[in-house]
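# nightly structure sweep
# worker-07 picked up a monomer target from the shared queue
# config: single-sequence mode, recycle default, output format = structure tokens
# input follows
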Amino acid sequence: MKNSVNKLLSAFNENIELNKAHWADDKIYHSLGCQFNKKWLANIVPSELLSRSLKEIIDMIMTLSEGDNFYTLFPDEIYTPNYGDNWGRFANYIELNNRAIAQMNNDKCCCGLVNSIKLLPAIPPSGKSWANCVVISQIFPNIFGDGYNKGPYEENSIYGLKLNSGYSENIISFDIKDKISPEEQLKAFCDLCHFRGIKAGFRMIISEDQMKIVKEGQEEIFRWNNDEHVQIYINECAKLMKLGFEAMFIDSAKHIGGYDMQNYTGVGALPQYHQMQYILNEIRLRSQRNDLSFAGEKSSDDFERYKNMGLTTGTDYITGDDFEKVKELSTKLKYYRDYAPGVEIENDNYEGGISYEQRLHRISTALFANEIASDKLPSFMQTNDIFPLRYDTNTHHIMMTNPSYSTDGSPQSHYENLFAKDDGRNYNHRLGIIFAHALCR
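# output follows
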């Protein structure tokens, strides 16, 4: 039986025999100081990858193989980069809005997962001392109009999902489902992440009025006091972990158990503290994995509260604006190997205001503000931190809406117009230089 990557290639009528790619030789960046260079593409804009065929991208992924080991067929067995069971405590989390980069054909939206694969060559691989982890924004169906884009100011929030009803039409390529199942498409994504030396994760919400359960074709509003709903939630997450995902970003996690509710902006009740302990433990048990990372939105200085809940890290505790403060916190928490708050570059609520210079400074701080690299704090980035968006949109806007920026109804035009152009390319080049100096520490 073919592996998932080969099945994906075959589903697109592509030859599974791989060839060295030379179409971006002048865009290959590599780490400085490693015997076997870690490689990725930089000095690019996303349309240069999103407009390529899947075969061209997988050829490039093979070409960027660490140690120059080229495989003419994608290996049957791929293992996640091994940074120990508590890898998530030190990782850099990079959220890709896979819905925003999906294929926009007039008002239809699909294939966000394949397009996420197409961006993998431009994601720096994990470093010598810590992992990079790509977190995709959407996997499950959206409750506000799944499979369609809408106007730039029409509600189409990514923060509403349906469980027990398969996977999103925004994300999965359903026109090839008779050749490769949605689960195998997700596994292929994870395998390609792992081959690139990158961990894989997904965003999940916990506000009950923002979720629906589908049973026998009927929708029910999710309720945390309904054990059947809770078991479906756990099983959906555990299934993804079995497919190869290993990190889960939990929206509104700070407020679990009624904590700091005056600042809670979600809709509906949240799980109780002991209930979340049970849920996270069950996801580990049912997926039979001890190496999972659970990252919570927002943190506070009550680290034991989050650690004992089962979380690995949290956001919005410190930014990368002050190098010395981040370095001081890294030193203070270097013996906290199970939980530490992360350095925030940008979060999903970002509506603008951070310059390129400030953003690059924050990323540099996140990577270098430590005595030794193996003691670094985790960090959190968005698509915008790797590939800057066009000037009149922002991260939160494309989480709340799903517009096409195509001027002629074609996918290619959307890819070209969603992101910044010449200044975005220059930013991506400068980011590449920062990672080149960081990966071998």
